[in-house]
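Fold this complex.
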Amino acid sequence: MDFVTILQAGVATGTVLLFATIGEIFAERSGVMNLGVEGMMLLGAMSAFSTAVKFGNPWLGLLVAMISAGLISQIHAFIAIQLQADQVVSGLALGFLATGVSLVLGEGLSKAGTISLLPKFSIPILAQIPVLGPIFFAHQSILVYFGYLLIPASWYYINYTRPGLNLRAVGEYPAAADSLGINIYRQRYFYVFVGGVLAGLAGATISLAIAPGWFSEMTTAGQGWIAVGLVIFAQWDPFRAAFGAYIFGALRRLILDIQGPMVLFGLKNPFYYNPYWGFFLQMVPYAFTIVVLVIGSREAIRKRIGAPAALGLPYIRGERGL
Amino acid sequence: MAIKPIEKPSSFFPFRIVFEKRLKEPAHWVPFFVSLLAIIIALILSGGLIQIAGGDAIKSYSHIAKASFGSIGVFSDTLVKATPLILVGLACSVAFRARLWNIGAEGQFFLGAFGASAVVLTPLLPANTSPWIFIPVMMLAGILMGALWGFIPGFLKAKYNVNEIISTLMMNYIAVAWNNFFIYAVWSESGFQMSKVFPKTAWLPRLADYAKEVPAFRGLTTHLGLLFGILASILVWFILYRSRWGYEIRLIGDNPQAARYAGLNITRNTILVMMFSGGLAGLAGMSEITGVVHRLQGAISPGYGFTGIIVAWLAKLNPFAVILVSILFGALILAGREIQPSGIPKMIQGIILVCLIASDFFLRYQIRITRRA
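Structure:
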């Protein structure tokens, strides 16, 4: 039980949630809620792993994962944006579809053997920083470092760039944005696509870097749903999303590692001597998600911040309303 | 009006295809026809994907048809699979009618199974109890546990505005871990990951049990749970369309703003609807565990809770249509077990839901073809 090691692994695990959450933030900021994150992540994990097995190249796997999840997200985009269907059901449908397709195409993949993983390395000077250095900058996968770059980049993009302003306008008040010549439909298609790509990346992060392999539905084990919950906790802000994602990552690691040692804080480790108590540990991330949602919702009410105003509402040109 | 013309500007094509918003409800047969068309398209699409994945679509479909409707015996098995779907489909219908997205029926199903098992295994009742007491107590336990699992997200939604989609889903994972703890640790039978078999008095009677009196029932597995499902459909229909509470549920679902102005207690109704929905799903778990599995184990559901969402949507939240749709999906689940690759039934379900939700467009819009000037 070395806490630095656990936190180091926790950051890596949290990167999965980070990608999925930021992707969903982009989609929801444009006004489209996509509940298919779990399915898209599975598809990403499956396609990344199977490509890596077949061609021996994890980079190609990464690319295929992002493209396939991005493409499948467009089904939801079409149904929600063009056909103006209920986004909840449409997102669920996408999730079922993507899960089913992943299971069918991933048949037999769990016995496919090993793949070469994405590279891991340390950042020369930053890794020397006491405590934080080894946690964040030592022996991490390249995707973890990409995550560090994605957080400020997406924050800056959403809040301080022209396209980001358009994105927020489309999600808050599409009619006004439309009157300024922004193509609402194109914007929404694009950001649902971005959300899909990042969900695919999240899935690929699992199967190519964090927990390599294909374990059918247990590959993601509900992390896509946790990501959707984190978006609410994050109040649609990438930095808060990162905070939540890394905490969840550390929590998941802690749960795995806490059952190992015989002695915990100088006491007999109850989880070592009663391995069945591990089932209660398994509940923790899911229960914690609910707790986090309660905190997030209460804070949102107190601070009077909320979801993007047009979230979940189809935009119909020329009709009254948002 | 909102017109979004999807037209192909072509001088050869003298017509214009315009989608217009319907001003009045479509005729009675339209939704049925549109849904049927959506299913047919979904099956064609799934067939294509099965071919791509290396299977044989026509063989798969004819296998599904034969293995689920081919004889009285297999049809009875189909009904067995349809039984939990009816109850779970009703659970989803009630919640969706109030616009509460209870997608935690799977977890409520597991807890219902747990509640029923607890009666036998704790044991709350001795093994030689008469079925006339055993079964009602187990039903009650299943319903209560399911309702409890619905109460938690309902309460959080009503009091703290916690998104029920995510909380119900999280409750699913918690339910699975909860059951696993009891299967592995507490009620494990000599180290196996399952409990001991329930005493016969705690089994729901099957048609086959009456083979002596009615020889035609020999080997038929359909159990009393089906009757629960049918009675529950009638009950749900009565509550939704013939009772004051049902009127409130529908009003809240259709127009929460108006419901609030009318002085309806939204908080109380949210919690009650979630509990009612959870109770139905819990009853499904109880019926499955006492009618089919006869012991508590891990693999008691091939995703009934999620299929229930599709059932409810395909039935357009109509309690009686839920029965028919459940039989179709029961067939898919029953016959799907033997189809390779094993993910195919799940994929077909996903495609059906996608096509179905897409087809709703034609209920809100009508196509008009006009001659180009």
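The mean pLDDT of chain B is 89.
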